[in-house]
Amino acid sequence: xxxxxxxxxxxxxxxxxxxxxxxxxxxxxxxxxxxxxxxxxxxxxxxxxxxxxxxxxxxxxxxxxxxxxxxxxxxxxxxxxxxxxxxxxxxxxxxxxxxxxxxxxxxxxxxxxxxxxxxxxxxxxxxxxxxxxxxxxxxxxxxxxxxxxxxxxxxxxxxxxxxxxxxxxxxxxxxxxxxxxxxxxxxxxxxxxxxxxxxxxxxxxxxxxxxxxxxxxxxxxxxxxxxxxxxxxxxxxxxxxxxxxxxxxxxxxxxxxxxxxxxxxxxxxxxxxxxxxxxxxxxxxxxxxxxxxxxxxxxxxxxxxxxxxxxxxxxxxxxxxxxxxxxxxxxxxxxxxxxxxxxxxxxxxxxxxxxxxxxxxxxxxxxxxxxxxxxxxxxxxxxxxxxxxxxxxxxxxxxxxxxxxxxxxxxxxxxxxxxxxxxxxxxxxxxxxxxxxxxxxxxxxxxxxxxxxxxxxxxxxxxxxxxxxx
Length: 470
Prior knowledge:
By secondary structure, the protein is of the alpha/beta class. Helix content is 48%, strand content 8%. The protein has a four-stranded parallel beta sheet, covered by helices on one side. A three-stranded parallel beta sheet has the order 1-2-3.
């Protein structure tokens, strides 16, 4: 039987194949949003086995295993690494139609040279073969970055983080990839969380200054932003369920902040006032540094209380939140724009029904001197797969300008996820190739190919200001 993954996989016409092989496939990777652990890069980690590199922390696979009735001890529990791998292998044939089926076999092919389909029948052999491959230096973290020509990768970091691992990476001349931090202050915006006061304390310690009031809180955030900038950071990131925009009276956010530090209960409306004011203050600070602000919107998290108590957050019990945000998003962007403090911004949504709305909203706030200053972020989380990516790209192309798109990212904790860039590029080339074949675009491969190359790499390289200049 011919292998599932082959040179022309997902490329359904001649134009798609030309665009991919002659243009997209030769582009380096610019992975501007990931959850990779910088300590594993600084230490050039060698993974002990396939479960360590492939299953640990992968809530996509965990959800599928639970769907198939696998016992939790074989997913996140005390079972041996080998038993967990064998359990996943038994599940893989049942993931047909799900992106996991493609991702699994693409990763096995590109990283390990395993071209047969994974199942219970060959799981033992694949386990041994892949574990042997993991002993090679090219499969340590730095070897993977070099092998996949990753020019830039951005991690996700708390404002109180020392960034010691980032300094160690920059000091190591053997690491050719630029590894930059991303400023993620979610814990400092989640004022209703019982850990909020502790997060403020940690911020105070990191900034080396007391935080007794809201003014000092914003000053400490500013100090950490400047510190992150010195360490190579050029992006922030924020995660929300519903996107807040509640403009309260002057000084109200400060009162709410003071009450929260005293342990008082904060209402949902009050939290919205605090989050709105603080996010506006952060936006101004980001703009002053020339950063890009990322807004990840629309996840409803930790929905299964029983399993949250057992496995904790980020364990596969989050889902898509349905809500409206046209007024709040436009209002927020407008508030920063009218004062001249709107930074470059990327808006991601977990609800694909909002793609067209967001594409129309960000068109209100583009600016001279920056192509695509405000971006519709790529298909995210549940939608970084074929149908989600295509729906995103078509919405962006029809309502905005896809040629300015800064492209794909992994949004992953796994060093085996760089193949998602190939997956995206094949779908991108097939979309453009189909438009060529159907007469919607000219059969001018150098012209269309240059647009493909820009989306795959050059746009991001120009937009973020991290890495090589052009």
